[in-house]
Amino acid sequence: MNRFAALLLLLATLVPLLAPGSAGRAAPVGTAASSRETEKSGDAEEKPLRVKPRATRTTKSVKGEAAKPEAAPKSAARPRRADAGDTQVSRAQEAAAAGRYGEAREILAGLETARLSEEKADDAAYLGALLTADGVKQGESFTAYLKDFSKGRHRRESALALARLHYVQGDYAESERLLAIFSPGIEHDTVGREGLVLRGLAQLARGDAPGALQFFASCEKDLKGSGQEEAYFFAMSQAGLRTGKPQAAVDALRVLLDRHAQGAYAPQALYAMGMALEQMGRATDATNVFRQVAQRFPDSYEATRVRDRGIRPGQVVGSGLPIGGGYALQIGAFSKRDLADALARDLRLASVPDVSVKQGSESPPIYRVRAGAFASRDEARALGERLRREKGYSYNVVPH
Question: Which 3 state secondary structure label does DSSP give 397?
Fold first, then answer.
């Protein structure tokens, strides 16, 4: 019995073991968590689906000449009618998309793989890997897919999924190698952007913090303003902290906290801001931020870390909060960047805290000069009045 016939026999053996209704709840498809999903299937061991590309037939070679692919018959140019196998793959895809993962597995287990078109063989192999519950076997299935379908339609998704598994297992070098197909400057979809973030994190976890920081900086145009920007700016802040460049961390965290003040990374970002300010020697500001962690996210792990430092929630003291939220002063708005930069430079020389130039989204853009970060309007107004008296600046109190 050849290898392919043995595979068909194995798949046929598995079908009776997958009793209807045996599927348990699965994690979202395509995530590392899905590798830990379990299903009730008796004592049978799950066998990941392995679909190989259909072999190209060749003509017999004439002595001294290489074999050549057999020319396709003229009738092959006509639209191919979907056979039962292709229809089964489509049904499995629809079931998986609807969250019926057990049903999708049963359909794939009953496939006659020899009758699949090349396109549906590709889809079936990828979906089979995606739905493999055991983490180790899922890794083997994705590895097999990338080997058998080196130019497959799901190559990028498979590389990302396999890289996630290696990252979780601590094999950062292999994760980074797999993610080398994702490059800054050309990624415009979710898969590519997630690949960039994970590639930088793998480089950081491998111990190359300076390289990771440089890589993240090169990804800004791909990731800023995208659905992955929160994870991106937090990752960049970690690279800045580990490289000993706290200002780079603060700059990244300012954007994150300004745009995602209640996002998934908010507690970690606030704590990281406190760590960065400590590295910069701004102990009072760091304490203020740590207090904010305990006040705003009392049940978070970061709040526990704050309490372990002996810091308790209380009134914020000293200068304003250098984080997203609260209020700031807008002291000028210009159509030319050099004018805004000149005003910002004068304000910094006058020891005005937390001066920044923000580029608006208008076309052409307006450059707004802002200063301070305060918990209340009254605190912001007090600084504005001092600048008006001493420097003659006008101001507006705006949300930070």
Answer: strand
Residue 50 to residue 117: CA distance in whole angstroms: 15
| Ranges of the chain whose pLDDT falls below 50 | 1-44, 57, 61-62, 75-80, 317-320, 322
Residue 354 backbone zone (phi > 0: left; psi -120 to 50: alpha; other: beta): left
3-class SS of residue 79: coil
Per the DSSP assignment, residues forming a β-bridge with 330 are 370, 396
- Distances in Å between the Cα of 6 and the Cα atoms of 11, 51, 89, 124, 225 are 9, 13, 21, 18, 51
**Which amino acid is located at 94 in the chain?**
E
pLDDT tens string 99-114: 999 999 999 998 888 8
Is 56:81 a contact under the CB 8 Å cutoff? no
The whole-angstrom separation of Cα 108 and Cα 50 is: 10
Number of Cβ within 10 Å of residue 272's Cβ equals 26
What string of DSSP letters covers 332-378?
EEESSHHHHHHHHHHHHHTT-SS-EEEE-SSSS--EEEEEEEESSHH
Task: Pick the closest to residue 290 from 318, 264, 329 (CA basis).
Answer: 318
Rounded CA-CA distance 128/113 in Å is 12
At 300-323, the pLDDT tens digits run 999 999 999 988 765 554 444 545
Neighbours of 247 (CB within 10 A): 11
- Please report which helix (H) or strand (E) contains residue 186, including its range: none
- DSSP SS3 for 329: strand
Question: What order do you get walking across the sheet with 356-359 strand by strand?
Answer: 356-359, 367-374, 327-334, 396-399
